[in-house]
Amino acid sequence: MELAAFQAAYHPDGINWTWGCAFDETVHQILTKLEFHPEYRSAGLPDGKALAFRNLTQGQIYVLEKGLGTTFPGHREVDVTFGEMKRFFRKYLLSSYSHALAVASRRRTFGGLVGTYAEPDTGPRPLMHINSGFSRHFTFYKNYFGFAFDPEGRRYGRYDPAFA
């Protein structure tokens, strides 16, 4: 009943903004390693593409194992497909506060994409924006998950309530 009341409280054209970060440092590091992998392409990489990582830390391997529900037998040797990497990042997107708010409200929600952080604007009424240094992350989320970005140019991702 409370959820229905929450959803009914919105104007039909209502949206949500979640100002701030979605910065999980380890997830950011894993995404950066993927983006700089010699086999990675910013668009059009098939899910079945095999990727071998030999430069992950034990902490990064642990997070990847937990996220994928598997173990990697070799010390610092991780062999995965691009589809598995996408599944890993999708899991983090689905568990984010912005996605939860989009689903609960049934409204588009603008928020930080996993692995990015926000900074305060300058001026008399500062809001926040996502640091522009995450351009590779923005491209990954746009090209492989279909994310659009906020109309104000603050580089917040648009979470669709139907994203699954």
What do these coordinates show?
- This protein has helices at residues 2-8, 25-35, 58-68, 82-94, 97-105, 135-145, and strands at 16-18, 50-53, 78-81, 109-111, 118-120, 128-130, 157-159.
- By secondary structure, the chain is α+β, with helices and mostly antiparallel strands.
- The chain has one domain (16-159).
- The strands form three sheets. It has a three-stranded mixed β-sheet, with helices on one face. A two-stranded antiparallel ribbon has the order 2-3.
- α2 (25-35) packs across α3.
- The longest helix has 13 residues, at 82-94.
- The chain is globular and about 50 Å long.
- The relative contact order is 0.20.
How much helix is in the residues?
25-40%
The ordered H/E elements are HEHEHEHHEEEHE
Low-pLDDT segments: none
Helix/strand/pairing class, anyone? Answer: alpha+beta
Number of domains: 1
Radius of gyration over all CA atoms, rounded: 17 Å
The helix count comes to 6
The total beta strand count reads 7
Instruction: Tell me what portion of residues adopts beta-strand conformation.
Output: 5-15%
Report on the biggest sheet.
3 strands, mixed
From the spread of the alpha carbons, the general shape counts as: globular
Summed over residues and divided by their number, the pLDDT gives a mean of: 96
- Strand order within the widest beta sheet: 1-4-7
* Measured distance between first and last alpha carbons: 24 Å
